[in-house]
Amino acid sequence: MVRTVCGDDIANKLELIPLSDNTVKRRIDLMSENILKHLVHQVIAANKFSIQIDESVDIQNNAPLMVFIRYRSTDDFREEFLFCEPLLTSATGLDIFNEVDGFFRKNNLDWSTRAIQPEFYSVLQDVIQIVNFIKARALNSRIFHAMCDEMGSQYVNLLYHSDEKLSQGKIATFALLSEFLEDSTKVTLNDLKLLLQKYLNKLQLELNRYIPENVELSKYNWVRNPFEVSVHEVGEDICGFQEELLDLQASQVLKDNFSRMCLTQFWAQLKDKPIVSREFENALLPFPTTYLCEAGFSTLVVIKTKYRNRLDAQHDMRCALSMNIHPNIEELVEYVQHQGSH
Prior knowledge:
Mean pLDDT: 80
Number of strands: 3
Strand content: 5-15%
C-alpha cells in the first residue's frame, strides 16, 4: 500500500525499519507453537516413541531439563526437540518424571503408565522422597547413619526390599509397620507378605519386559539385513512374523528399495507388514542419537548469554533445533497482524 501511495523510495526506507523486540518475540513464539502443534500430531499418529532426557545448569544457575523425542514418521525415523523447562527446585528422578508427565498431559500425549495398587501409592510417594533426600548427598547418608546409632536401631543403613527378606518376615526395620501389625486384628503378616509378593512379582515382570536380561543380539540380525537371514532362525515365538518376513524377502521391489535407502528409511516406509513393523519399531526406537541433548545445551549457551540471562529460551530453541518440522508460514499469516498495536 505504501509503495502504491508514496512510491518505491519511501517503501524501501520503511522496509529497513526493524520490528520491535516484543514483536520479534511474539513471532518466534508463534512459530515455535506451530512447530510443536505439528510435532504433537505426528507423535500421536506414530503411536510409539522414545525420549532422551538430560539436565544441566545455565548462565543464571537454573537447571534446564531438555527432552528430545524419537518416533517413526511416514518416510524415516525422526528425532526432534520436544521441550526445555527449568527444574524449579531439585533434580531428582521424581522431579524429572513430574515435569515430563505434566508436558505430556498438557499436550494430550499418551504417557503409558501402569496402575499401582492404592494401598501402596501414598506410601510409595513418601518412600521416594525420603530415599531421594538421604541418597542425594553423602552428608545426608552419614547423618542418617548417626541418627540410627543414637536411636539404638539394629539397622543403620538404608535397606531395600528383596524377596528373600520378605519371605523370612524380617520387617523389624520398619518400626511403624511392625507396630501396626502388632495392634491390628484384621491384617496379619501373611496377608501383608502375599500382597507385597504379588505386587513385587508384577513389578519384576514389567522390568523384565522393558529391560530384558541376557538378550541374544543375533535374533535382531534380520533388522540389519532382512534379505540375508534364514526365516527359520528368527521370530519362531512371534505368531505370523515368519510369514510376513518370507513375503518381504520374496518382493523384488522391497529388495531394490533396501539397496538404495538407508536402513531407517527402508523400515519406516514399510507399510503392509504390521507384525514385522511392530518388531522393528521395538528394535530401533529406543536408540536416539547420543549427542542430541549435548547439541541442545550448546545451542542454549549461544542463545541465552549473560546479556540475555532472563530470556525464556524454549521457543527460540525449538525454532533453532527443529530438524524436520518447519513453521507453516501460510497458516500463521492468516490470523496474525503484520504489526501489532503497542
